Amino acid sequence: MLSRTRIPLPLQVALAAVAGAGSFVVARVVCTLARDHIHAIPFAAVLLTVVLLFARALGILFALPVGTAAILAYDWFYLPPLRELSEATYTLLATFLGMAVIVGTVATVTSRRAVAAERARGDMAEVQASLRRLALLIARGEVPGRVFEAVTREVRDHLGSDNATLVRYELDGTTTELACAGRPEPAVPEALIRHVREGGRAFRLDATAAGVPVVVNGRLWGMFSVGSAESQLPDDTEARMSEYTELVATAVADAQSRAELISSRARIVAAADEARRKIERDLHDGAQQRLVALALRLRTATHDGDKPGEVAEIGADLMTVIDELRELSRGIHPAVLSDSGLRPALRALARRSPLPVEVDVRLDGRLPQPVEVGAYYIASEVLTNAVKHAGATVVEISVKAEDDCLHLRVHDDGAGGATFAGGTGLLGLKDRTEALGGTLDVTSPAGAGTTVTARIPLEPGDGGRDAQAAIG
Ligand SMILES: Nc1ncnc2c1ncn2[C@@H]1O[C@H](COP(=O)(O)OP(=O)(O)OP(=O)(O)O)[C@@H](O)[C@H]1O
Ligand SMILES: [Mg+2]
């Protein structure tokens, strides 16, 4: 059908008008010759069959003017009374042909739009189905390697390209190929990898190779490339890949946070074990030894008869052991914190510090115990760090409750340069905060002091409820 060829529509319209005029000339000759030999009805049937064949072969745009012209010729030169060609008949013929071409054009444009819309709907349904398949894989917690393989396969099928490849940009400047679907040749061109890495956006190397960046949590993580050995990639290739690259980014971010969660849990367990071992050691080496010694002395004193002086001494020693035990339990949860809350506990912390500490606590009443304990230990460790590492002259601690969260900020005016990698203190605080459903950030530019901010939800359970609400 002509409408499916690449002939532009205006040219097709002009050709249809010419075909109409041509068919009038031919139909006139045929009508004049057949008039005395064939009956009008079978002749009309033949005419209509010819029009039908035109419609099937060339479409409505051609069939309408050809049919209109043929029927006019049949009327004028076959059925009596016959007509002579005059200005009036030419005008009528031109008007009929014009109308037929206009109606044919409108019908053609409308049907083409309908076909295009239908095709777009089909495409969209296919994309949605393939995105749904991939999203299911990610939601099931499938290992990233499998997700990457599935995405590259779907991208290749969706675009009809020869191959689709996912590569990851490594920190040392190299790249790792994670998955490849289709023919491995041609391999991902080096120039494409470089352009996407440097520009951070989609790049088309030539008509047969295109690359789209994969950005995870705001960082350029890798690149998706598609290639075609011979044929040209469609113009909208990059746009059609974007939804798939977003899915890859989601899968990667998901896997990363799962891995972080697992290692943070492992660190929390290790820290808890370490704390328990320390308490066991302190009890074993301190209070337990003293109690054993006191029991022995008590037995000797009983054997030797009444020795009031000795018993009084043992009583005093018992009081010391009780004090020691109390100190030990305070080490686990500072008594002032449990008894009076965060404000007095932070003030006590400030008083004991060798550095001047300004404390600004804006809270009404008490907070949930895990939040108070968390905030206290964060302030305590950050203050110890400021004393140990910063060479600071003053430390500011501020605490406020806002938006259902506790906001803690500890700032020193020291040397800066704090990192999570330097020891276990800051990392432990991060784990502690995240275990409470909060976040901890450290800003510590060299020479400009250190600021540690923590945000802890006052009701950690809310996160779970929100997530539940979000997934319905
Ligand atoms: N306020 C600060 N000013 C300057 N540097 C700091 C500050 N806080 C921490 N640092 C640096 O960051 C590193 C990490 O601190 P972190 O508290 O994790 O470990 P640490 O204090 O060295 O050891 P610990 O595990 O006993 O806490 C420190 O070694 C130090 O170099
Ligand atoms: Mg420390």
From TrEMBL:
- What residues form the membrane-spanning segments? 60-78, 90-109
Gene Ontology molecular function, alphabetical: ATP binding
What Pfam families does this protein map onto?
GAF, HATPase_c, HisKA_3
Which principal EC class is assigned to this enzyme?
transferase
Can you state which reaction this protein catalyses? ATP + protein L-histidine = ADP + protein N-phospho-L-histidine
Concerning InterPro entries, the annotation shows:
GAF, HATPase_C_sf, HATPase_dom, KdpD_sf, Sensor_HK_TwoCompSys, Sig_transdc_His_kin_sub3_dim/P
Q: Which UniProt keywords apply?
A: ATP-binding, Kinase, Membrane, Nucleotide-binding, Phosphoprotein, Plasmid, Transferase, Transmembrane, Transmembrane helix, Two-component regulatory system
CDD domains per record: HATPase_UhpB-NarQ-NarX-like
Residue numbers spanned by region Disordered: 452-472
Ranges for the Histidine kinase/HSP90-like ATPase domain? 370-460
What EC identifiers does the entry list?
2.7.13.3
In Swiss-Prot or TrEMBL terms, this protein is called histidine kinase
Q: Which organism is it from?
A: Paractinoplanes hotanensis
Ranked from the top, the taxonomy reads: Bacteria, Bacillati, Actinomycetota, Actinomycetes, Micromonosporales
